[in-house]
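[worker-b] picked up task from shared queue
[worker-b] task type: protein-ligand structure
[worker-b] ligand name resolved to arginine; SMILES cross-checked against name lookup, match
[worker-b] sequence length check passed
[worker-b] input payload:
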Amino acid sequence: MLGVADYGAFVAAILIFLAIPGPGNLALITSTSKGGIRGGLAATFGVIAGDQVLMWAAVAGVATLLVAYPAAFHAVQWLGAAYLAWLGIKMLLAKPGAQPILNIQPRHYFKQAAVITLLNPKAIVFYMAFFPLFVDPARHQGLLTFGVMAATVAVLTFLYGLGATLLTHFLAERMRANPVIGRVLEKAAGVCLIGFGVKLAVSK
Ligand SMILES: NC(=[NH2+])NCCC[C@H](N)C(=O)O
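[worker-b] inference finished, payload out:
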């Protein structure tokens, strides 16, 4: 379709990519549990913004550049590892109730989710290595093809983010009755982020 090699497989690949546990999902979940539905949606748009940057960077040939200069790729990896670990440590050290739920700043969730996406190894690999495979070299229609792919990614990510936000919000409502669970989950999320950072740092 319009130069996309196999549109059905492309959609399936994006859905799998979205559902894999990782920093992206963690960003959606923590933003929703802290900032409610507005926080979750802001994070969703942050992820979409980060996606678009990565995708168009891949289109512009950054993927080729990173292959040609592995040191640049490793620098991005280390940056991502450090950022995730730093976020994780902040979550671990957060005092209970330090961030009042009333003080919602959607801009904060947007920015944080965008940065997480830009440095998310899964997102980087998806756009730099995987995404180009779906461009049909013979039937390629230039910007139109990339536009269709970019819009598909954005729409699917929005629907996924909306679903994740509503689900998390619903579960969070029930959890508010028991703040200890929320605190434990925040620590667990912090440990996961540090783990993602370490994993990223030691992956070749
Ligand atoms: N649209 C995105 N960039 N999503 C990131 C998803 C990658 C992976 N599922 C994660 O949670 O980290």
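[worker-b] attaching auto-annotations
[worker-b] The helical segments are 7-19, 23-59, 62-68, 70-93, 106-119, 121-130, 143-176, 179-202.
[worker-b] releasing lock
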